[in-house]
Design goal:
The protein is α/β, with parallel strands linked by helices. The protein is built from 10 helices and 17 strands. Strand 11 and strand 12 form a beta hairpin. The protein starts with 5 loop residues before the first strand and ends with a helix.
Length: about 350
């Protein structure tokens, strides 16, 4: 007997991963459908998407369980420090006993790989409900679409997703080149108004500059030489030879949160359930854990759909709250900047932080 139809709204990485894990755990592929208007475009929008995704070690393990190799550039060392304060937190693979601390991959590459696998598994995807060949109604709906925070979100607050905090910051993203190229160390540098990260990918760094809106705009609009100088000053010489900065985008930052993530036959995962500050790169990884847990809960075939979804909501509560609290604290609490050097010498601190970054809460 075929399983009841699951409709996943959103054919992005989180939505597709939910479908792939359902199939891996034994759900009938023909009883899964993804709906996403972006599939209608002649040229997929993700082909030109400049985003670089930081995948945790745990996420890479999940993808490997599905037989997926996204060819991520592996990170061996994370260096965290703060402008104007002594000391640094350095997390290395031998601190946490793993071969890598995660990896970096372009959004376009990951999405292409996941969609190819989706088709290979026989999972159907449509640009709209009207394009479906049958009129069968789904037994459950998975909402897996969302996006970054927008200034208008507060005015449109409702339908369960509320704005918890406007950080009054922008994230400026792009590429940074140095005279010596990039190694395997990722850098995160806390400033008085935000955090700046340089993530090694091939021979250059992916840049995420988070700061108060006016300062972020000043950086984005500055000349090439000024951008190099500003970045060098922020990094305090830790990344020598910065010679080129290429800005690819900018977006406002806020915390959005859905408290009730399961209701009758509908469940929300990924960015439809939470949109976090990118300070620790945990948003997508949290969404991937949403996807895997949801698949496991749905396979409890002896229970009504509503009970399976409530079980999912219960299982996800601790991890969601821990990651929300951690990223919000890192983004807002001044004591974090002052404490980095001191925390680094506390026994077990590096291992604990490494575990959270790799596997969540």
């Amino acid at each position: 007997m075929a399983d009841p139809l699951v409709r996943i709204q959103g054919a992005g990485p989180v939505g597709i991963l939910a479908a792939l894990f359902l199939v891996k755990y034994g759900w009938t592929p023909s009883s899964i459908e993804l709906i996403d208007p972006a599939l209608r475009a002649a040229q997929p929008a993700h082909d030109d998407d400049p985003r670089i995704l930081a995948l945790s070690h745990g996420t890479l393990v999940r993808l490997a369980q599905l037989g997926i190799d996204c060819q991520a550039e592996r990170i061996q060392h994370i260096h965290v420090s703060s402008v104007g304060h002594f000391g640094a937190m350095e997390i290395k693979t031998d601190n946490v006993g793993v071969s890598d601390l995660g990896g970096l991959v372009s959004y376009s590459r990951l999405l292409t790989i996941l969609r190819d696998r989706m088709r290979a598994d026989g999972i159907a995807a449509f640009a709209s409900i009207e394009e479906r060949p049958t009129a069968i109604e789904p037994a459950m709906r998975v909402i897996a679409e969302g996006g970054v925070y927008h200034a208008t979100d507060r005015a449109n607050d409702g339908h369960g997703m509320r704005v918890v905090r406007d950080y009054h910051q922008h994230a400026v993203v792009g590429w940074v080149e140095t005279e010596t190229g990039a190694g395997a160390t990722a850098y995160e540098r806390f400033t008085a108004d935000g955090a700046v990260a340089l993530l090694p990918l091939k021979h250059r760094y992916a840049l995420i500059w988070c700061g108060e809106t006016h300062r972020a705009e000043d950086f984005a609009q500055a000349s090439q030489s000024t951008q190099c100088r500003m970045l060098d000053e922020v990094m305090g010489g830790r990344v020598p030879g910065i010679c080129k900065v290429e800005i690819t985008g900018s977006y406002p930052l806020g915390l959005k949160w859905r408290e009730k993530i399961a209701e009758q036959d509908t469940v929300w995962i990924g960015n439809s359930a939470q949109a976090l500050h990118p300070v620790a790169g945990q948003g997508l990884n949290l969404g991937f854990r949403d996807a895997e847990t949801l698949a496991a809960c749905l396979l409890q075939r002896g229970s009504p759909i509503a009970e399976r979804l409530q079980d999912y909501a219960h299982r996800r509560k601790a991890d969601r709250w821990t990651v929300r609290k951690a990223t919000d604290t890192l983004a807002t609490a001044g004591w974090v900047r002052r404490a980095i050097g001191g925390v680094a010498v506390i026994p077990g601190a590096k291992r604990l932080l490494g575990q959270v970054l790799m596997y969540g809460g």
